[in-house]
Write a structure and sequence with these properties.
With 313 residues, this protein is α+β, with helices and mostly antiparallel strands. Helices cover 36% and strands 21% of the residues. The strands form four sheets. Strands 12-11-7-8-9-13 form a six-stranded mixed sheet, with helices on one face. A four-stranded antiparallel sheet has the order 3-4-5-6, with helices on both faces. A two-stranded antiparallel ribbon has the order 1-2.
Amino acid sequence: MGLFAKRPPCPICGGKVKGLLTWKVGGEKVCDDCYGFVDLPDKMVDTMSIEEFKQYMVFRDENDVLRQEFQETQRIDFGWLDTKFLFDMPHRYLCMDKHLKKTIFEGGQIKSFVIREDSMPLYEGSANGLRKHESSVPAQVAAMAPQIQQIVSQKQFQRNMERLVDQLDDGKRNHSTGYYNDFVDIAAPFKNFILEIRFDHPYWKTFTADTPGPTFDSTEPNAGDYLNAYREKVQTLDQLATALMAIAFPGAKVEQVAAAGAPGQPAVTRTAAAAPATSEDAIEAIQKFKRLYEEGVLTEEEFAAKKRQLLGI
């Protein structure tokens, strides 16, 4: 069959299937009008028969009625992409799209939800109430603070030493040591905030989204800055959990849950080695090796290696 051979009509409406790139349902090509905008879990449409897709079209038309009624009263951003949670509190509706194009969920269709820090629950909502778990993250970061400060101090000392040695070479700051771009790698207590909503819905059983947790600055890490960023994100998540409860389980109780035993403190890793103990000894030794280099006793490579050794880099 040639490229421009006549195509079979749309199996849904009998109309013409246009274009080179066409939609397929149940192995058959359908027209753009019938396919329309589809909001289903990943790959569900790929397994649908034509009859099942027709049933979805009926659901979509019914859901469009809710869309016309939707009155946005609250919007909560979740992450830096387009994941937005729009709430219509009077009607108890929810939509996860800033343009209201995706499915409109009714509050009564939400069975439960959980917001986690990686695997640790932070909020759990159901008909039994909202459980707010106290996180161990602030305590972990507070315990890391002295170690972080020590590393930052060592890094600053090393920078000062590098500048001094750089000047010793020829009296000018010309960055000959080449180590000014070192950075600090400190592992955060967790990687992502994860949201999971479970539904009693004809098509959606679970919706999952995640957003990165805060990270330590790679050049000047600071425990206080991390905690400020963490609390700001948790405040947004608290608003989200409260809004979900308001449309799904209005009037349910709220329970505070103490933090469980904190897991082991995350490892703190430096990309550069520790600085030498005393600057005077290092400077004196470098000056001695510089004279040997100028007298031809040491090669340039040997002198550079000695500098790195004395600087601990």
